[in-house]
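Supplementary Methods S3. Input chains for the assembly prediction are listed below.
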Amino acid sequence: MEEVGFAHFSAREVAKRIGYSIGTIYNVFGSYDALILAINGRTLALWRDYLERRLEQSQGDRLGHAIEAYFEFAAKHRHAWAAIYDFRLPEDLSPPETYQAQVRAIFDIVVAEVRAALPASRKGEAEALTRSLLATVHGHCVFAMNGTFAMLGEREPARAVLDRVREAVAP
Amino acid sequence: MEEVGFAHFSAREVAKRIGYSIGTIYNVFGSYDALILAINGRTLALWRDYLERRLEQSQGDRLGHAIEAYFEFAAKHRHAWAAIYDFRLPEDLSPPETYQAQVRAIFDIVVAEVRAALPASRKGEAEALTRSLLATVHGHCVFAMNGTFAMLGEREPARAVLDRVREAVAP
DNA sequence: TAAAATAATTGAACGCCGATCAATTATGCG
DNA sequence: CGCATAATTGATCGGCGTTCAATTATTTTA
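Predicted structure tokens for the full assembly:
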């Protein structure tokens, strides 16, 4: 996935590379979708690790570093990161609970940082604000990675989104 | 595309439905990618029309209505809208100039609204701010459509993003 | 109008894909 | 060892994007 991206990824190629047959892939994962979900789950775990490590190193401006971590991870793992959003389960299904838990784990890390950055009087907004700020950062990251920002002349996406986040968190 | 979505879309099915053979599709469009680009270009045109019509009807709170238009169009044309972002050209290619022009045309419409909403002292920021706000709205729309917001308990994505936009435009 | 030149259309063929499953091979156990 | 259970295989299927020689339709020319 990391190498070829979601569009050119194939279960057959996975089987070839690990020295098993296509049948074994299906015995282990059950379906193509489940294989993708397993890979995306692993990417989420890597993402969370990356974010946590980046915050450990941080001394001040933790929110700024969290945003940098978002952009850095997406850039370092373009294809794997994009696959998380390129893949969509059939409309009537929800991701497995373990997958949802991984999304929430990343969310919880960011909530803590947003809450810490908020003045005491606004800490109650932390969760709702974090959902909105994650979407904000994500939107900027998507436009940075897919060329939309380049098309529109934006050269400092991370700087732009940091402005948005500071506005929203400012007392 | 509108019906089956990017993942299940196929040039063969297009040929079948319009009563031509697969070969003719390739004679006309040249490649699968070019066919997708033609469809996405058409979607951009529809999107622009929708936005313009929605703004014509608007009496006050034009930015709010532009955001509503973003969400409404994405919801009404889920698959076609998603296909704009699901499709990625080979990394070394840029979209054709006509396609880029359509993206900029939508951008220009929004710039005018953002500029009008900004106080005189900040009108110089209009373009940069619009890029950032488009990304912000897009991020919220993506999370609304792909289930991320549902997973995190967000029930009013349009309301949340309106708060972000108002913060950013406020004098 | 008839013949020739040009344009448009076709669909079989290729290699790849996800998915299935009867047949085979490997493993563990009494 | 013999047997039961588990793991693995890959041929097979229908569908995909892509190509291109062959065919059909249209236009131009004589």
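The CA atoms of residues 108 and 128 of chain B lie 12 Å apart. The interface with chain A takes residues 5, 7, 82, 85-86, 88, 94-95, 100, 103-104, 107, 127-128, 131-132, 134-140, 142-143, 146-149, 151-154, 157, 160-161, 163-164, 167-168 of chain B (CB under 8 Å).
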